[in-house]
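Technical annex B. To support the medicinal chemistry partners, we prepared a structural model of the target in complex with zinc ion, based solely on the information shown next.
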Amino acid sequence: MRYAEVCVNSPIAQRQTFSYTIPPGLSIDVGQVVWVPFGDKLLQGIILELSAFPAVEETKEIAGIIEPHPVLSPAQVSLAFWMSQRYLAPLFDAVALMLPPGFKRRALTFISAPVIPADFDLSSLTQEQRHALELIQKQGKVSLRKLEKTLGKKKAHTVISQLVRRGLAQRSYELEPVRAKPKVELHLSLAVDAAEAQQEAAKLHKKGASKQAVLLDFLAQQYKPVSLAEVRQRINCDKAVANALVNKGLVTIHHIEVRRDPLSHQDITPSQPLTLTDAQETAFKSIQSSLLASAKGDVSPAIFLLHGVTGSGKTEVYLQALAEAVKLGKRGIALVPEIALTPQTIERFASRFPNRVAVLHSKLSLGEQFDEWQRIRNGESDVVIGPRSAIFAPQPNLGLIVIDEEHEWTYKQHDKSPRYQSRDVAIKLAELIGAVVILGSATPDVETFYHAQSGDYCLLQLPERVTPSESSPLPQVEVVDLRDELKAGNKSLFSRSLSQAVAKAVSGKEQVILFLNRRGGATFVQCRNCGFVLRCRRCDVALTYHLAEDTLVCHQCNYRVPVPQACPQCLSQRIKFLGVGTQKLEQEASHAFHQARLLRWDSDTTKGKYSHQEILNRFRSHQADILIGTQMVTKGLDLPQVTLVGVISADTSLNLPDFRAGERTFQLLSQVAGRAGRGPLGGQVIIQTYFPEHYAIQAAAKHDYATFYDKEISYRRQLHNPPFSRLASLIYTHTNDTLCQREAERMRGFLINERDAKGIANLSIIGPAPAFIHRLRGRFRWQLILRGADLSTFLSPLSIPQGWTIDIDPVGLS
Ligand code: ADP
Ligand code: ZN
Ligand code: ZN
């Protein structure tokens, strides 16, 4: 093979690879990282394929190898191609997810000045040009960045271009310095034997060099090299003293690589596997036999959906399945929705696999991430645990992928390219390498459950909580109709039922969670009297209030109506916006329950690295009676002293302008209800709503996934929403709202033409409409939604202008 297809780190490259010649004598492998010339730059590139023929006539040579060992496995290379194709993302964006932390480096531009001929007339230069030239000549070579700082960005570029054109300056390129390296600590040990050291120490004492003497004595008592930091701490002795002894040939300095361990601040006590309940055992046996069969290569491995109510012991099944994979010589990856919110889960994994768990997430320091990545690649961790990006960990011999709370929307990356769904990526990766997948949830994604029903996935169920079986059944759920509260003259945020229950719990020294879904707060208009919400007739989503125009807008099809003066249903004039934040809730709660100690948990109170854990620890150790929070409180927390969960309004998520609003509400309510009654005290949940009869609320109140699913899937079928189709969202942004809308309309026309020219049936193009977040950082956003079968293939060959963002399989609102 004389040619290589290389994926380069340049915005121009997009979904393409480029052909390069392999210079004779260079040994090149797929997955390796190299330098390549690209335009007039030198860039990082990853070898994705080797070939006997180049894709173009003229090819440049690979400039050199960055690292001899491939950083991507062949399966990861295939995965990167698949992601780029499916999510219409630049190849390098996909590849970058798999590179070691801190690996991505940009090329920096440097300017140097050649010797200027003696007869050159400097007065022919402008003052700025002369100034720039002086700067360059003074240092021989200056980075463009530095010149930009002194001359201003625009000026620097013009002046340098002028100088280059006249042959007075030259550009050259180098890569940014490496950002992450192994951490090396200096260690000290004796260079002579202990007896000699002690004699020397005595001599030094006499000469008055007592610090050196102390260090020698200290080292004479150690049996292995001691770090300089420890020496400093224990005998208050610094590097100069050590150097003095090195010069005398008495002490040796070692450079020892040390590991930055993200779990070092946690106390991990090893744990033993529990004896499985019958339901757990059945589930485990299925997974075990799939692991065995696929290890032998008999059958292709299965995808399991482990559907178990909260507290049914799913985690124990994951742990034992992972242990089984390890027994077969394989390794695992476990994905969790958001690592900062799940310290308990990490602890459980780490204690079952002591020192064999690696953690990967963006809140770790770059050094920690780097060390964990290296450790994983060296096969030193049986299980990698992390958020969605951990699916790209270089885990060798991967045999099992676990996705906990698989329905969570955090598994979809929506804010930057590639906009991937890690659940789908995991399933693709498993297919490529022959690994088993376990998707676990109490409230599976409707699409996942549909696959389980139709036999694509294997369904395993844990219908009951584990321990202790009688005293901890699923909590009682009461649904409070807010219309009745108003009729009774109660205008506070707390219904009579909820007030009483909170007061009772607090006086009984029990704990309470008050949950508020803030997203979408004041965006829909609701009648305070009867709860009526205006919805779009075509799209069946709630209309969103736009303050600037005092109008209600459908964020799918752009249907608009003025805000009515009176409620169309009951004619009441108390039609208003229901918007209340956690802060307001905290205020009202402190008035209503002044004897209670409050703790607030939301994105404002959790900026620090460990702040989630701190808040959680404070609540667990009962330093507060009431925890007030947003979605975060719905995650897998185990809080045995919580006996009451109050949902302030179930309607905020019900009225999001999204076809998944019902599903989202069901998930949130079920998850939040799962927080109550985890201990021997039992528990109760109170849900406040204007729609007590809504199927999502009814089903959540009865812990009845099956009924919810049946209703939901029939609506999906009727409206032809996923899983009966796939969606793509196309968002255009511009500083000018009218231009933005016009471009979106032009695009709609273009897409319709393309569709009709190709004769593609069942492809709808919905909109344009303002995006849910209509204005973001000064730019307006308009959206088109595509609904059809294979949108990636349809969109892939089209030329989509800059300013457009495509999200395949979008979730939530953006
Ligand atoms: P889930 O992940 O389904 O929410 P967990 O795995 O957190 O459930 O289990 C809930 C509780 O039950 C935990 O405290 C766990 O230690 C305990 N548990 C799970 N399986 C068993 C078992 N087989 N025997 C005893 N206790 C168990
Ligand atoms: Zn009304
Ligand atoms: Zn509409």
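Notes passed to the chemistry partners:
The pocket of zinc ion (ligand 2) is lined by residues 527, 529-530, 532, 567, 569-570, 572 (CB under 6 Å).
The radius of gyration is 32 Å.
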